[in-house]
Specification:
heterodimer, A: 241 residues, mainly alpha, B: 71 residues
Chain lengths: 241, 71
């Protein structure tokens, strides 16, 4: 069974990547259009997410562990490879830069009575879309490792911590190197996804659970190699074949 | 309110873009790799190495394709 610490760290980091975007959207909308409608929209989004986690978690707990590991492993590997690839491209291109740039939702401040539905919707949409990705990672990772509680704690922990940073120091959140975080999480999800998918097929890895650090080293070395190649290609030191 | 079918299509599109993303060949390679691994296992051939090999190879291929598209 995958350790609690590994589950906590992986789901925390993966959730942090999405939490940065979520907080940037909510704080950006709140700062420009007012906080009341924005926070109500965010709270509504979190309510929807809580229901999704409960339903998904309950559904996944009914599936036998072998097929569950195969499905969850395949999904995590597929999704993890996306972030793995994008992380390599972004780190190669931008290094440790944060999100930077302007707030994506700079609009005029709301001065009317009642609910500002634009602010509510922007905040609700940001929380739900980014939060669904956190929920997906937490539930699938938790189900695959049989540590759903730890995965949820990791996910919620990241949202709370990044949220607290974001509300007190908005610019700091935007400077967190999201691309590097995305790459690290892509490597982690690809590692665990590969491990569980193969275990789900009833195949034993050499060394059992000790294969996980081996896979991690292989994929991390792959990332470093491809980042170097991409940088050299961008600098014109190596022609694109 | 949008018809229910539009919501289903929107959710399916969201899930596809979220899980598969902008390079479907990587998802296809994972699926084919897992199927091949299962077939080899059934024939008593040790095949845990196939998925890591596919991951490393497909990343390189996808990155090269993305670089060419960017030029």
């Amino acid at each position: 069974m995958t350790g609690v610490v590994a589950v906590l760290i992986t789901t925390f980091l993966a959730s942090a990547v999405e939490a940065i975007e979520m907080v940037t959207i909510v704080v950006g909308v709140g700062a420009t259009r007012g906080w009341r409608s924005t926070l109500i929209g965010a709270a509504s989004g979190f309510g929807v997410l809580a229901m999704v986690v409960v339903v998904l978690g309950a559904a996944l707990s009914q599936v036998p562990i072998g097929p569950l590991r195969l499905i969850v492993g395949a999904l995590l590997l597929t999704f993890g490879l996306q972030w793995f690839r994008k992380g390599i491209m972004r780190v190669a291109a931008r290094g440790l830069a944060g999100i930077g740039g302007q707030d994506p939702h700079e609009t005029a401040e709301w001065t009317g009575p009642g609910m500002d539905w634009t602010a509510w919707f922007l905040s609700f949409k940001g929380v739900v879309l980014e939060g669904l990705e956190v929920a997906f990672i937490a539930v699938t990772f938790g189900a695959g490792s049989n540590q759903l509680g730890a995965a949820v704690v990791g996910g919620v922990g990241a949202l709370v911590i990044i949220g607290a940073i974001g509300f007190s120091l908005h610019q700091t959140v935007r400077r967190i190197p999201r691309s590097l975080l995305q790459l690290i999480v892509g490597v982690l999800l690809s590692t665990f996804g590969s491990f569980w998918a193969i275990e789900g097929l009833g195949i034993e890895w050499p060394g059992g659970d000790a294969a996980i650090p081996g896979l991690l080293v292989l994929y991390a070395a792959t990332a470093l190699t491809y980042i170097t190649l991409e940088r050299n290609r961008a600098l014109g030191l190596r022609p694109a074949a | 309110m949008r018809p229910p079918l539009s919501w289903i299509v929107a959710i399916a599109r969201f899930l596809y873009e979220f899980i598969v993303g902008d390079d479907w060949t990587m998802a296809a390679a994972v699926a084919i790799g897992l199927m091949l691994t299962a077939v080899l296992n059934v024939n008593h051939i040790v095949a845990w190495w196939l998925i890591p090999l596919i991951v490393v190879s497909m990343l390189g291929i996808s990155l090269r394709r993305a670089s060419r598209k960017a030029r």
